[in-house]
Design a protein that fits this description.
Elements (H helix, E strand, L loop, with lengths): L1 E4 H4 L5 H8 L29 E4 L2 H13 L5 H15 L9 E8 L2 E8 L8 H12 L6 H11 L8 H9 L1 H6 L3 H5 E2 L2 E2 L11 H9 L8 E3 L3 E4 L5 E4 L3 H5 L2 E4 L7 E6 L4 E7 L24 E7 L2 E8 L4 H11 L7 H9 L3 E4 L4 E4 L6 H7 L6 E3 L5 E8 L2 E5 L7 E4 L1
Parallel strand pairs: 16-17
Antiparallel strand pairs: 1-10, 2-11, 2-20, 3-4, 3-12, 4-7, 5-6, 8-9, 9-13, 11-12, 13-14, 14-18, 15-16, 18-19
Length: 418
């Protein structure tokens, strides 16, 4: 990750000029619609779902909705543990025992943030460590073994490959073929598994038993702190990125776009939203499982909690060389003032821009930009490039007593309401 001081490199031009030209008041829906298809991004406000799910795999959600209806005895934290563990079978590249695990909770009106990762590599399993710690913290007396056995017993169907995982398999096809464990799981003939083909079955209890061999040797960093911000109009929030850096035009730019898996679950009263990610320097399995073993010390998703009672907004930003920039810009556009799920959705759909270095340039989604913004940008003494889409931002809102997840219409994603 590289710190980039935009103002220093553009000393001939006022930095505040750039920021003011790019920022606007709370965006109106009509301002950005340029023949973009209208894609639903959240559950209807007229519905009252008992459970909402988000991730990138609609098939897994349909299976889980059926499981939910058949197990009314399970509470919110039971579903937190099960839906989190199930991601191992759905996205074993980014959701793995070895992944970094970030999660936000709304529980009985209070918000909680956790981030689990390790600076060590060998046999470190932050996700399992994190799920177990959270269960203990909130006085759940059920073990990981209990949830693993329940999954093995009740989730008998194999999950289906979704597009992002197919892309990962295709990009790493030769390395997967060469691995004697992973190859048989993910290669059919000479090709990797394709979208909607069945994923290998994962024995969850065996995974937990393997973890137990190393559970006393876990060197996991647990972070629960966030950086506070206050907008010019007085709204407050907390993020895991320091907005003071962005206010001074110091950007945190990666050379690559880090991958991650976002997912969440909400009931009418409680909710959680999570991100899991890992760096895969080598393509190798965990033990003999269809799971990819990686490093959890990776660039985190950008996370913000905006609580101006009675309204609550969470945002998760990923798929960007600087995911924090996108949340910083959303706050400047008026995210913390939003009074409805529809307003939050409108802001997420609005045109994004990103300052990058090497060379210094501005990238913008011109197909979503209002004409006046394009006109202002053309006045800047800075190379400007167009992008079809920038980043990925998902959100959760609890406004006027109604919980809703929002996905980004730029990228594949799925939500369900039942």
């Amino acid at each position: 990750m590289k710190m980039f001081n935009f103002c220093f490199l553009l000393a001939l031009t006022s930095c505040s000029f750039f920021i003011k030209k790019l920022d606007t008041e709370l965006v109106k829906k009509e301002a950005y619609k340029k023949n973009l298809p209208e894609v639903a991004t959240y559950c209807s406000m007229n519905s009252r779902p008992k459970i909402q799910l988000i991730n990138n795999n609609s098939f897994s959600q349909s299976i889980y909705q059926d499981f939910f209806s058949k197990n009314p005895q399970l509470d919110f934290f039971d579903h937190f543990a099960i839906w989190s563990l199930l991601q191992f079978a759905i996205r074993p590249d980014q959701s793995s025992p070895s992944s970094r695990y970030q999660v936000v909770f709304q529980l009985r009106g209070e918000n909680h943030y956790f981030d689990f990762f390790s600076e060590q590599i060998q046999n470190q399993f932050p996700t399992l460590f994190g799920i177990e710690l959270i269960l203990k913290k909130f006085n759940k007396n059920k073990s990981l073994e209990y949830y693993a056995s329940l999954i093995d017993k009740q989730f008998t169907q194999k999950h289906k490959v979704e597009g992002n995982f197919e892309s990962f398999l295709s990009a790493n096809k030769e390395k997967i073929k060469e691995d004697p464990t992973l190859g048989p799981y993910f290669i059919r003939g000479t090709e990797v598994l394709k979208e909607n083909e069945r994923l290998p079955k994962l024995n969850f209890l065996r995974v937990i038993q393997h973890y137990r061999q190393f559970s006393k040797d876990q060197k996991i960093i647990v972070n629960t702190s966030l950086n506070s911000f206050t907008t010019e109009s007085g709204q407050t929030g907390k993020c895991n990125y320091d907005f003071n850096l962005y206010s001074n035009s110091i950007f945190l730019i990666d050379k690559m776009v880090p991958a991650s898996n976002l997912f969440g679950l909400a009931t009418p009263t409680d909710a959680f939203m999570a991100s899991s990610s890992q760096k895969l320097e080598a393509i190798k399995p965990i033990n003999d499982f269809p799971l990819f073993d990686g490093e959890s010390k990776v660039r985190s998703s950008a996370v913000c909690i905006i609580e101006n009672k009675p309204n609550l907004i969470w945002t998760f930003s990923n798929l960007s060389r600087d995911p924090g920039q996108h949340l910083f810009h959303l706050v400047r556009y008026g995210l913390a003032r939003a009074q409805s799920t529809q307003e939050v959705d409108t802001l997420i759909r609005h045109s994004r821009h990103l300052f990058l270095s090497d060379p210094v340039r501005l990238v913008i989604e011109s197909n979503r930009s209002p004409p006046e913004q394009i006109e202002n940008l053309l006045k800047l003494t800075l190379p400007i490039y167009n992008a079809e889409k920038l980043g990925n931002v998902w959100a959760f809102t609890s406004i006027q007593g109604t919980n809703r997840f929002i996905i980004d219409d730029r990228n594949p994603g799925s939500f369900s309401c039942k």
